[in-house]
Specification:
Length: 388
């Protein structure tokens, strides 16, 4: 395939930012299309082997793909049909690798200056100093990587990626090598830095919380296919199907049958085992349809021991506490419900609320399922190896 020069597109195409379509059967199966607008952060989320890093490497020109098209700001970088393959060095891409890939014998300043090779010496140094100041490393310019913390090395890697004045910034698990406290600080710094970035940013991560914090859009990737794409909150509350719900770690996924609808009150009624539930209206399904439904663990509300449920709309159910796990100030509880012999119901609450209500293993409790937070999906069978 010929390397060729950058091929200009029309004004309409330039406005799209990054556009990527990739297809191949092996070695990593791919059948994915994604786009990312200037100034937008797109997170690719999925299990190991789903093709996330392969997509990033294909955008950068580091991994050839059997069939595909990649363009940025109207420039075609890759098109198998037209036999276009722009060399990596000619693609304006900034890439932050998981391992940072810094030159160990060079200072932070020299690492950034290496990416500014086309500028004159004085201009290179001035720009490198500006970029290091931008990522909060002023005063540490002469330190080599082994003299820097993991978070500081990551900042050098970001400064070096930005030194190329990229059209696209690619981040491949950039925070995985640092501890949680450092990761949280870097998340905040990247959020602040992105207000100054005007290019598409594609972030690969297996950390759903990280994706939700940092991205404008998430693409849920599995076995090379994008199962759902959209704003993080939309995906978390309205997964497309059971498979997506499992991949984003929603635990309360059940099967029920539609009884009917009350469009006036925006209610869909479900028969779930021996329990009748009211859910948020979902007119896409007919009475008698078998459906999957999901509810976040935070939308399962504990009944006060001496206080009754506030009404049928709250979907009161009862059962026995099977497990309790405390994670910091949050307690995760699983409940074996009456009339439900399939899977437990999970609930999360503050440690303070658990203590105040004397929650304990083996205790019998009542909870309500918030109808507005019950999301109905098409019925789907998913294998148990589809988790993140």
């Amino acid at each position: 395939m010929a390397e060729g020069g950058l091929i200009e597109g029309g004004a309409a195409e330039a406005a799209k930012g990054l556009e990527v379509t990739l297809r191949q059967d092996a070695p990593i199966p791919l059948n994915a299309h994604l786009s990312c607008a200037p100034g937008e952060v797109l997170a690719l989320v999925g299990p190991s082997g789903s093709g996330k890093s392969t997509i990033l490497r294909a955008i950068a020109g580091l991994t050839p793909i059997s069939h595909g098209h990649i363009s940025s700001n109207g420039c075609v970088w890759y098109d198998t049909q037209k036999q276009i393959d722009v060399a990596t060095r000619h693609r304006r891409v900034g890439f932050v690798f998981q391992s940072y890939a810094l030159f160990p014998h060079l200072s932070a300043l020299d690492n950034v200056m290496e990416a500014l090779g086309e500028r004159a010496g004085d201009a290179r140094k001035i720009r490198a100093l500006e970029l290091l100041a931008l990522v909060r490393l002023k005063g540490l310019e002469e330190r080599r990587p082994f003299e820097l913390s993991g978070g500081q090395q990551q900042r050098v890697a970001v400064a070096r990626a930005l030194a190329r004045d990229p059209d696209v910034l690619l981040l491949d698990e950039p925070f995985s090598a640092v501890d949680r406290a450092t990761r949280q600080r870097l998340h905040l710094e990247l959020s602040q830095l992105r207000s100054q970035l005007r290019m598409p940013v594609v972030l690969v991560t297996h950390d759903l919380e990280e994706a939700v914090q940092l991205s404008d859009r998430m693409s849920i990737l599995h076995r090379g296919q994008i199962l759902q794409d959209g704003p993080p909150f939309e995906i978390l509350t309205h997964p497309a199907n059971r498979q997506v719900a499992r991949l984003i770690d929603l635990k309360n996924i059940f099967q029920a049958r539609v009884i009917g609808h009350d469009s006036g009150h925006e209610i869909t009624r479900l028969e779930w085992g021996g329990t009748s539930l009211e859910a948020r209206y979902s007119g896409d399904f007919m009475a008698g349809d078998l459906v999957d439904w999901v509810i976040p663990s935070g939308s399962v509300i504990l009944h006060r021991r001496r206080g009754p449920s506030r009404g049928v709309r709250e979907n009161p159910v009862h059962g026995v506490i099977e497990t309790m796990v405390r994670l910091g100030e949050t307690v995760s509880v699983s409940i074996l419900l009456d009339d439900q012999d399939a899977y437990p119901l999970f609930m999360s609450m503050s440690a303070h609320a658990a203590a105040r209500n004397a929650i304990a293993l083996g205790e019998r409790i009542g909870v309500s399922l918030r109808a507005d937070d019950i999301h109905i999906m098409p019925s789907q069978t998913v294998h148990h190896d589809d988790d993140l």
